[in-house]
Amino acid sequence: MDDNTATRRAVRNALQRNGHEVIEAPDGKTAREMMARWHPRVVLQDLMLPDADGFTLVGELRKLAGTSDVAILAFSGFISELLESRVSTVEFDDIITKPIAPSRLVPIIEAHLPRVAATSSERFGAKRRLVIADDDPIQLKLAAFKLARLGFDVVTACDGRAALAAIRSRTPDIVVSDVMMPELDGFGLAMELRKETRYSRLPLLLVTSSYVEAPDRELARKAGANDLIPRTPELVELVDALRTTLEAAPVPLELPLESFPALEREHNQRVFRQLERQVRLNSGLAKRCSSLASELTVLTGISATILEHRDLDVALDGALADCFDAGGIAAGALYLIGDAGKLSIRQLGSGQPWATDEVETLFGRAALLDEVIYGGRALIVPSGIAPGVADDLLSRASATQMMVVPLGRPNEPFGALLMAVRSRDLDQDDWRAFAQGVATQIANVISLARAYDARSNAERLAKQQAALLQAVVASAPDIIMQVDLGGVIRFINRALQSKLPPELLGTDWFSMLPEPQRTTVRTAFDTTIRTAQPTEVEQQFSSGTFSIHLGPVIEGEHVTGVVVVARDVSEKKQAEIQLVLADRMASVGTLAAGVAHEINNPLASVIANLDLASTDIGALGEHTILPPDLVEEIRDARLAAERVREIVKDLKIFSRAEEDRRGPIDVEQVLDATLRMAWTELRHRARVVKDYGHVPPVEANESRLGQVFLNLLINAAHAIPEGKYDSNEIRIATTLRDGNVIITVSDTGSGIPLEVRSRLFTPFFTTKPVGVGTGLGLAISLKIISSFGGTIAFDTELGRGTEFAVTLPASTSVAPVAVGRTPTRQPATRRGKILVVDDDVQLGHAIRRYLSAFHEVEVVQSGRAALDRFDQGARFDVLLCDVMMPQVTGMEVYDTIARLDPAQAAKIVFLTGGAFTIAAREFLDRSTNPRLDKPFDLKALRRLVHDMIR
Question: Between 20 and 30 A from 791 (CA), which of 425, 738, 762, 800?
Answer without folding.
Answer: 800
